[in-house]
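User: Predict the complex.
Assistant: Input components as received:
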Amino acid sequence: MTEPDEMIDRLEELIDARDASGASALLEALPAVEQSRFIDRLDDDTQEDLMMLVTPEQAASLLEKMPEAQAEDILDGLAPERAADIMEELDSDAVADLLGTLEDDEAEAILHEMEPEEAADARELLAYDEDTAGGLMRSEFLAYPLDATVGSVTEDMRSNAETYTDYDVQYAYIVDADERPVGVLRLRDLLLSTPATPVTKIMLPRPLVVHHAMELDELAQLFDDKGFVGLPVVDDEKKLVGVVMRKSVREAAADDVAEDFLKVSGLGGREELRSMPLVVRSRRRLSWLSINILLNVLAASVIAAYQDTLAQVIALAVFLPIISDMSGCSGSQAVAVSIRELALGLVRPVEMMRVLGKEMALGCINGLALGALLAVVALLWKGNPWLGAVVGGALMVNTIVAVSLGGLIPLALKRFDFDPALASGPILTTVTDMCGFFFVLSLATMLLPHLV
Amino acid sequence: MTEPDEMIDRLEELIDARDASGASALLEALPAVEQSRFIDRLDDDTQEDLMMLVTPEQAASLLEKMPEAQAEDILDGLAPERAADIMEELDSDAVADLLGTLEDDEAEAILHEMEPEEAADARELLAYDEDTAGGLMRSEFLAYPLDATVGSVTEDMRSNAETYTDYDVQYAYIVDADERPVGVLRLRDLLLSTPATPVTKIMLPRPLVVHHAMELDELAQLFDDKGFVGLPVVDDEKKLVGVVMRKSVREAAADDVAEDFLKVSGLGGREELRSMPLVVRSRRRLSWLSINILLNVLAASVIAAYQDTLAQVIALAVFLPIISDMSGCSGSQAVAVSIRELALGLVRPVEMMRVLGKEMALGCINGLALGALLAVVALLWKGNPWLGAVVGGALMVNTIVAVSLGGLIPLALKRFDFDPALASGPILTTVTDMCGFFFVLSLATMLLPHLV
């Protein structure tokens, strides 16, 4: 047993002995990811005990550092009263993010136990779509009226320093009588001005604001274009309702890439941790595998239709899985390029002809290379050039089909608002398998006299 | 032709007519990702013309917003003198990033043309490993001596406001006579103090510093643990040499996830854009495909060894690609979970027994479900329960093998310092194909009397 594993046992003992300060001291000595890993190793009951044992502040800080799936799992198991106490220690956007991962009735039970004001804040944020400015913003921000001065603002910041530290303040906003943002104050400008200066004199007027429904893509572009650290978010009446931070947008965008990875790998984009219950993990993976096996049976039915040919040239059976796998690989490369180009905004879904042209050209070169290679293998093995021509030719043609389709499928799915990362793989492999089996077996049937 | 495409034509005309202000006006009216897409659509010569036409500042700002692969491609085509002019408009870390993507002799040619001082800065940064604090830091920062006062610092900031705006200043560092950082000044503390205050009074003493060789993983953890926006980087003598920003660390970490995606998809982790030359794209994709086809031939040789059995039960040929594909899918899910858990630090490479236990349990459930499904398909099709037992049993056993291996391979690769995202897929599919083919065909050989 390695040293850290002994420390996990030690943590378990401390929790079992209800030693709150011992358990927190052990955890606090660890870096964040090790904290998450240690907690991940405890069984569900012990995790719950730990969350009851430490202070709500400590529990909140532990939850905040965990991968979302892990935090969700733990919150799930906690009594709503305790979960509410912990939620009250977190930023409004963190509360909304965590409650958003739970089932509606579980989130409601926790909200019910929270301070009415904080629950109302969280409910408001929860009402926004996850990947919009409203869903990404925090409702804590600094706003001052038009008649404020540098002195009054500095005075307010000084006297509320405690509260504002948590706000991660970079700007303050100047709002008119209708709570509409009319200017932005930068900290550095406050620094360089005398107390009597009216804020209207040093604020940047007509600030850029974003509507709460602005989508993640557009926000990410905006932050890329301009150097802002945060942007004010307004509602339909143009009232200031929150601030969306560059950091939150970046994190959400990075999560999207990670999600694509989980989707392409057949995990439906949801994070799986091995500490989750076996049935949950098994069910999630099976939901995708069971669709896939049916698609596989469909593709294999093409082979079944050519059993007579196969029976006469049994060597073909050796090449069918090769052609299926190689076409899948060639196609996946093209899928990945399209998904990346879509994510980077370098291709638009309507540009199908451009992608088709580019991929067909590449398909011809790679198809020729791979087809020739496979033909040589077949020739060396059986000494029959016709067999080489059949399997090599089929692989060549199918490579062109696979890369063209692989390039186009993500664009087509995106155009009709389906998720390219989720659906491209199964569609691609089913179609390329069917085509590949058809090419090799129909070609073989035509050339049967030369093959037997 | 859609409207934006007409605008690309218009851009091309403006460039051909050498209309610098027209071309910049058109580009500047676009959001960043559209700028990159427009430039991506121009042919290589026109891209080069554009970079010569606009000012170096404008060219720098265009390059900075592009995906790295695109910027590399454009820099590649520019005369070193022009490239050097453009580089001089960028932050030291951006210069190092861009030059780092070029071949050594190309980067050297550009450095040779740059102002000696800026070239020296870039060379220094280039000497550091890419994913370390040194490689991620910028060499622009604010440092003041121990005897500075709030007044002298504010005065310096005020008079150099122009230069410092580009530094993205959040902190200033206080250094001793040996240039070692001894304190951090926060902007907000400057704001709340009188000019006569010595900086030593308001600085945060004994600042956390990181050594230039600290790796990305560790940096990401550090920024996750603490709320810093930036951290001072020191050399072997503990001298302050740069500042690594949270932003750069986050970006590098997000790039790593994107790279994993490109590796798993058989693109070797390098970004491919469809605007790259056909031969480059084809060669890069083929380098992986040609390894893969050899592994496929190796796996298929198992089938070749059982030709006699296949010839007698030709229906088996229909199931071979299904078993190969389904095992691959089950295994990929487990690979993805391991790669994610490794990236999140939730599993360590030595925990192989834990992963094996978790995956074998899951493999039994999913193997049973998928095996039963395939057995039913075989039974319905041929009416022979023995055939169902052979293909269903083989898929069941092979699913257990595939998920166990899929979970373990990334850990084993990581342990011996290979890249899990790059090598897990090919190793997994080759082994599971060989096992799957062996299970179904050897089982069929044993039960041959019941199958014919």
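Chain A touches chain B through 111 residues (CB under 8 Å).
Let me know if you want any component modeled separately.
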